[in-house]
Write a sequence for this structure.
């Protein structure tokens, strides 16, 4: 049903499936929230909606090209897609709701990350001490309760594309495709999408580091590294420290990969044995 609506609008099959699935998720979130209201469970339920990475290419369309006539590709003006260390590769929606506890209709501007979710849950549960050297994030509960308007900007968040081949030495990739973020700046290093593409690098184009003021330039259009070299150097030094701490934890670099893609195999078997059955909505 959802896919057909988009093919009727002129979307290609793959893109229609992609946006149809997003629409389907939206509809089912609506069903879930309707039932929470019907069953009077909102006061005892924290609802979270989030994603795991930025906008993807291919199935969703191509950056700079319309997905279908009258439907431009949308990435909220951000630079980069999934697999990039730029803002558009890692920024995700994150919505939370707990009726009777947190004021609704607010946007929280403090930069946070997935590593902050567990400490926040722990704080909600009244847990004051978490295992030492096991949890790197921080609780953003004071923002949700309104106790604070912002949190300290004394930390950095790190991104690395990774994806090197099995058996490769991770240190050879330390200074490629990484980024460092705080509340105001994003430092993008070593040949990420903002500097040169993989194709350009193969053709001999040298990557360069870049620094962006994300408050004034959220689309990462102007590299200000020459104007603020001291900021870039601090962020690069912080990343170097992070890598030295993280490298000893990379213990499975020589683990053999599966010779097949199991989900691809199972999908082929399913299609051969009757295909994907129509989904029937359960009675709730």
């Amino acid at each position: 049903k959802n896919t057909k609506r988009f093919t009727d609008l002129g979307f290609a099959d793959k893109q229609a499936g992609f946006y149809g699935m997003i629409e389907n998720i939206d509809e089912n979130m609506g069903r879930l929230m309707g039932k929470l209201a019907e069953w009077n469970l909102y006061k005892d339920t924290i609802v979270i909606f989030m994603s795991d990475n930025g906008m993807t290419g291919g199935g969703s369309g191509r950056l700079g090209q319309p997905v279908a006539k009258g439907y431009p590709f949308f990435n909220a003006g951000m630079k980069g897609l999934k697999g990039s260390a730029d803002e558009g590769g890692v920024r995700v929606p994150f919505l939370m709701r707990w009726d009777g506890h947190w004021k609704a209709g607010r946007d929280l501007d403090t930069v946070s990350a997935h590593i902050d979710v567990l400490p926040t849950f722990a704080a909600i549960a009244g847990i004051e001490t978490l295992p030492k050297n096991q949890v790197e994030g921080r609780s953003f509960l004071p923002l949700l309760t309104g106790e604070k308007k912002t949190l300290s900007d004394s930390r950095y968040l790190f991104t690395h594309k990774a994806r090197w081949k099995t058996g490769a030495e991770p240190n050879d990739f330390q200074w490629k495709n990484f980024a460092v973020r705080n509340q105001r700046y994003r430092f993008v290093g070593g040949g990420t999408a903002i500097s040169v593409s993989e194709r350009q690098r193969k053709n001999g184009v040298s990557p360069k580091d870049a620094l962006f003021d994300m408050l004034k330039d959220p689309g990462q259009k102007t590299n200000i590294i020459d104007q603020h070299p001291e900021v870039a150097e601090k962020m690069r030094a912080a990343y170097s420290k992070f890598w030295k701490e993280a490298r000893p934890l990379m213990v499975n670099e020589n683990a053999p990969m599966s010779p097949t893609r199991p989900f691809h195999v199972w999908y082929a078997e399913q299609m051969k044995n009757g295909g994907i059955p129509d989904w029937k909505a359960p009675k709730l």
